[in-house]
Amino acid sequence: MKIFNTLSKTKQDFVPLEENKVRMYVCGPTVYNFIHIGNARPMIVFDTVRRYFEYKGYDVNFVSNFTDVDDKIIGRAIEEGITADEVSKRFIEECRKDMEGMNIKPATTHPLATEEIDGMIEMISTLIDKGYAYEKNGTVYYRTRKFADYGKLSHKNLDDLRSGERSLLVTGEDEKEDPLDFVLWKPKKEGEPFWVSPWSEGRPGWHIECSVMSKRYLGEQIDIHAGGEDLVFPHHENEIAQSEAANGKEFSRYWMHNAFLNIDNHKMSKSLGNFRTVREISRQYDLQVLRFFMLSAHYRSPLNFSADLMEASKSGLARIVNAADHLKFLMGNAAEDAMSGAEKEKFEKTKDFVLSFERAMEDDFNTADAVAAVFELVKYINTNTDEKSGKEYLKALLERLVMLTDVLGLIVDKGEDILDGEIEKLIEERQAARKAKDFARADAIRDELLAKGIILKDTREGVQWKRA
Ligand code: AMP
Ligand code: ZN
Q: In terms of CATH architecture, what is 2-258?
């Protein structure tokens, strides 16, 4: 599998730190508002990356934070006359709803910055002890020039940065030893949330959050660190400086960055009035359409959002869903036949589409080509099935289609509503039937569940199920 690594600026073979395991950290949103469709891009892209690793049999430890202490959150709290905590709690909830709508799996852990302050104080202390940080009047700064590799991710050198240093100097920070130094801890201002530290009552800088949360939940070294391309500098560059200086180890092996989403060929911004939240889009479209739209381009290409492209995505997705519906309709009336020789041969041919899907995903997650492979399969299904097709053949085709669309996080087979309890009951019944060697009944239960969009997986630990 090849991944474009921002660090080396090349596509590299993916070699995990530990066999069959992926440790991955994705910088999450600052929760002061509903998430916008630009924020949705990294969420969808890296959820798809995770799903593909899982499809390949990797065990993925996926960590994504919520930045729940920040100037913008405090600003909104003051505006509304509520606490910063109330603002962030509310928008974390809203963000989770949007994520569910886009079928983004919850992370293995979603740490909150405000619950990790102790770890941040500890890492800052280590950096001071090692000479990488210093305190001035209650503020702690990182001594950027001391970290010899500074600039290795953004491919900037310190001299380039020096020429832009004036803009880096913020009022009140003129006590810094060097304009390139950045804040690790800052004292509170009146009315702001604060924590007690050895340096002042205050709060951490933004960059230290991710270094600490990544270390706590994934260890000192991780496989992949990801986010939007605006985070390369300074956020990720600073994370590297902090983590590598504190831990004495390479931080992340691969750095992945998605390109930006624009609207009608303009940068999305509040001042241009073209700012769109995911929630707004959900009133017009099923969020699956937004997901499909995002995956129709390669994640490193800029993507333009427009009404026309959303309409095209809607009909594209409908084409796939229709193929699944068509199979289910035929299955409803089909004879209980096992696959005929001719059907076996036809089914065998669909392997080509799976292979081209995988080839696309292995090439730095080229979802645009992976979607094209799904369309090929859809076309094949539509032209190679009819009322005479046997049930086993139809079912195998549906499973194959669901297998691929599931990697993309697209729900093409919603099934009927079925409660978890009913599913468990049917699984128990199926186990009993198998024990009694009533395989016909066991298979019938499996089919019944599949028709409702429930996929069973027999593992050594027992039967696992998931909704397609
Ligand atoms: P923020 O809340 O601004 O820290 O952003 C959360 C994530 O969304 C980061 O990974 C950003 O890089 C990403 N992001 C923000 N705006 C856009 C955009 N217009 N297109 C793509 N990604 C974006
Ligand atoms: Zn981060």
A: 3-Layer(aba) Sandwich (3.40)
Ligand 1 in contact with 259 (CB < 6 A)?
Answer: no
Q: What are the phi and psi torsion angles at 454 (to 5°)?
A: -110, 125
Ligand number nearest CA of 65 is 2
Full strand arrangement of the beta sheet holding 261-263: 266-267, 261-263, 303-305
Ligand 1 atom closest to the CA of 35, numbered from 1: 2
Instruction: Tell me the one-letter amino acid at 389.
Output: S
Please indicate whether residue 275, judged by its CB atom, sits closer than 6 Å to ligand 1.
no
Q: Is the CB of 48 under 6 A from ligand 1?
A: no
What are the pLDDT digits (tens) for 333-360? 898 889 999 999 999 999 999 999 999 9
- Of the candidate ranges 66-80, 170-184, 205-219, 380-394, the one whose mean pLDDT is the lowest: 170-184
Q: According to the 3-state scheme, what is the secondary structure of 65-88? A: CEECCCHHHHHHHHHHCCCHHHHH
Mapped onto helix, strand or coil, the DSSP state of residue 105 is coil
Going by CA atoms, what residue is nearest to atom 5 of ligand 1?
29
Mutate to test the pocket of ligand 1, among 24, 35, 39 (most ligand atoms within 8 A of CB): 39
Nearest ligand for residue 29 CA = 1
Category of 458 on φ-ψ map: left (φ > 0), alpha (ψ -120 to 50) or beta: beta
DSSP code for 32: S
Evaluate: CB of 27 within 6 angstroms of ligand 1.
yes
- pTM of this prediction? 0.88
Whole-angstrom Cα distance, residue 436 to residue 97?
Answer: 43
Banded pLDDT at 109 (limits 50, 70, 90): very high
Decide: 95 in ligand 1 pocket, CB within 6 A.
no
Residues 6 or more apart from 250 whose CB is under 8 A from it? 221, 244
Average pLDDT of span 190-195 = 92
Pocket flag, ligand 1, residue 260 (CB < 6 Å) = yes
pLDDT value of residue 158: 85
Q: Tell me how crowded residue 303 is: count the other CB atoms within 10 A of its CB.
A: 19
**Residue 41, ligand 1, Cβ within 6 A:** yes
Residues 278-315 have pLDDT tens digits of: 999 999 999 999 999 999 999 999 999 999 999 999 99
Mean of the per-residue pLDDT values for the chain? 94
CATH among 1.10.10.200, 3.40.50.2000, 3.40.50.920, 1.20.120.640 for 309-407: 1.20.120.640
pLDDT of residue 453: 78
Domain ranges within the chain, ordered by starting residue: 2-258, 309-407, 420-467
* Tokens, residue 458: 């027999």
